[in-house]
User: Fold this.
Amino acid sequence: MNTSVLKLHATTCCAPQASALRAAQLVLQRDLTLAYRRRGQIIQPLVFFVLITTLFPFAVSPELARLREIAPAALWIGALLASLLALEFLFRDDAQDGTLEQYVLSGQSLTWLLFAKTVTHWLLTGLPLTLVTPLAAFSLGVAYPAMPAIGAAVAIGTAALSLLGAISAGLTLGVRRGGVLLTLLTLPLSLPILIFGARAAELAIKGASVAAPLYLLGAFAVLGVTLAPLAAAAAVRISLE
Amino acid sequence: MAWTWFHKLGSPPYAFSLAGRLTPWFAWPAAALIVAGLYGGLVLAPPDYQQHDAFRIVYVHAPSAWMSLMVYTILAISAAIGLIWRIKVSHAVAASCAPIGASFAVAALVTGSLWGRPMWGTYWEWDPRLTFELILLFFYLGYMALRSSIDDLMRADRASAVLAIVGFANVPIVHYSVEWWNSLHQTATVMKLAKPTMPPAMLIPLLMMLLGFTLLFFALLLLRVRGEILRRERTASWIREAVLI
Amino acid sequence: MWRGERHVLRGLDLALHNGEALQVCGANGSGKTSLLRTLCGLVHPEEGRVLWNGADVRRDLLGFHASLAYIGHDSPLKGDLSARENLRYWAGIRRRFSGEELDSALAQVGSVEWRDRTVRTLSAGQRRRVALAGLRLLGAPLWILDEPTSNLDVDGQQMVATMIREHLQQGGLVVAAVHHELVLGTAHVRRLDLA
Assistant:
C-alpha cells in the first residue's frame, strides 16, 4: 500500500502573533458581547432555577421549618439542573457557525481558549445563580447567617460543574437531541459536587463549620481546572473531525 | 519483539482468528469453575452463623460486583490505547466490553437487592456499595448511549474513548464521595452488605466463582470482539475467506 | 480515508511550493472538503501524511495552524456581531493589528458601508466578502479555501481572483476547492481532479 503524501512548502513566516493572554481576553470579550446581545438566552437557566426552587414548597409543605430541612436539596438540585440546561449553549452556537473550528485552527492552545470560554460561561451562568441563591434560600426559610456559606458552595460547585460539563458538551457536539445525552453524561461526574455542596448547605443551616465540604468542593474544582479543559479540547477536536 | 506482537494484535484479521482460537480455552474452564464454585458455595459450604443461608448469594453478588469494576477498567484501558495509538481493534474491544460490564453491574444490583431483603427487610437501601454499583451502571449506560448517538463510527470510537477515560478517572472520586455521604447519615440499624468472616470452606468456592466469572468475561469478550470486527470490516476483502473457514 | 461508508481520497501524492496555487475540482461528494480539512490537520487520514516545510504537521500542529488560514464552505462569522467586531475577534486571536489595517481589509473587499451592521442582516454574498477580508488580516502564507466564490457576484469572483493572484505573487500558497476553475492568469496554477 503506497502512502499518500501531501507536501506544502513555504519560507515566508507569518506576522506577529497575539499573546495567549490577549487571545483569552478576546474570547472573554466576544462571549460577553454576544451574551449581552442575546440576553434572553442567558436568563433562561436563572428563571429555571427560581421555578424549581419555587415548586418545592408546593410539593412539601408551606411551613418554613419543614422547608428549611429540604432547602439544601432543593437549592442544589435546582442549581444542578439549571447548570445542565446552561451547558447546552456553551459550544453549540460556535460549533454550528464554524467559529469553534476557527479556534482549533487559530494556532493558540485550544485548551487555553476553551478554558477562557468556560470561565466566561461561568460568569454568565454560575455567577448569577450564586447571586440568586440567597433569595431562593430565604424563600425556603434559611436564616441570613447561613447565606454566605451556601453562596460560596454554590459558586465553587457551579464552577466545577461548568468545567466538567465542558467535557460532555464537547463530546455531544452535533449529536441530535444532545441535551438529554449531555445530562446523562454529566450527572455521574457531578455527583460529588452535589454530595459535598448539599452537605455544606446543610451544615451552614445548622450553624456548624462548613470547612470540610467546602474544602472538598474546592479540591474538586481545582482538579477540574487543571484537567477538564484538556479533556474538553480533546473532545472538541474529535467532534470536529 | 514485543512491539511487533502488539502491532499484529491490532490487525483485524489476526485478532479475529486469534479470538476464535482462544475462546474455547476460556469458555470451558469458566464453565467448569462456575459449576464447581456454585456447588461448593450453595451446597457444600456451611451456613453462616449470623446470616444462615442468606449469605450464599454472595457467591454470585461479589464476583458480579468485582467484575463490573474490572470490566470498566479494561474498557477504559483499551479505549485509551485505541485513542492514543489509533488502533481499531482496541476500540472494538472497548465497545464489546460495555454490554458485558453493564450486565455484571445489573447482576450485582439484583443480587445485592435480593441479599438485602433478608438483611434489611427491604429490597433497596442506599448502601454505599450498592449505590456505587448503580452509578457504575450509569457510567456504562452513558458510554453506550454516546456510542449509539454518533453516526460516524470513528468519531463514536474516539468520543466514547474520551468519555471512558474521564469516567475512569472519576470512579475513585465517586466511590469516595459515596462512602463519605453514606457515613454521614449512618444510623445504628443500618447493616452494610458485609461479607461474613470466611473460613476456607466458604472462601474457596468464592475464589472459584471469581476466577470462573473472569474467564467467562474473557470468553464472552472474545465472542463479542469477533462479532464487532465482523461488523466493522464487513466490506474488507479478508472477511470472505476468514468466515468460510 | 473513509467518510462513513465511502472510501475517498485514495492514492494522493502532491507537492506545492511558494507562489503556487492548487485548484481542487470534483463533483459533489468526491471528497473536496475532506481533502481540505485533512490538509488543515482537522481530520486525520488513515494512511498518509501532510508535510509542511518537510515536517509532518502533526509534530507541531499549533505552529502549522499559525501559518494557515482556512475558510470553510460557510463563512465563520457570528450573526450577532458586526463585520468589524467579527474580524477583530476572529483574526485578533491570531495576531495583533491596528484599526486601520482592519478598515483597509474591509475596504479591499468592498465591505466598508456595512461594516457596522450585524452580520445577521447581511446577505450571503456580503458575508462571504467579510470572511475573505479576514484572509488579509490573518496574514498567513497558506490559504485553504473551500469554494471561496460561493454566493459572490461576478465582481466578487474577480475580487477573489485578484486576491489570490496578489497572495501568490507575495510568495504565498493557495489551495482552493472550486466548482468552476478560477481564472487566475498566472502560470503557477495546478489542478487536481477528484474522481
User: Anything to note?
Assistant: The beta strands of chain C are 2-3, 6-7, 13-16, 21-26, 49-52, 55-56, 68-71, 142-146, 173-178, 189-194.
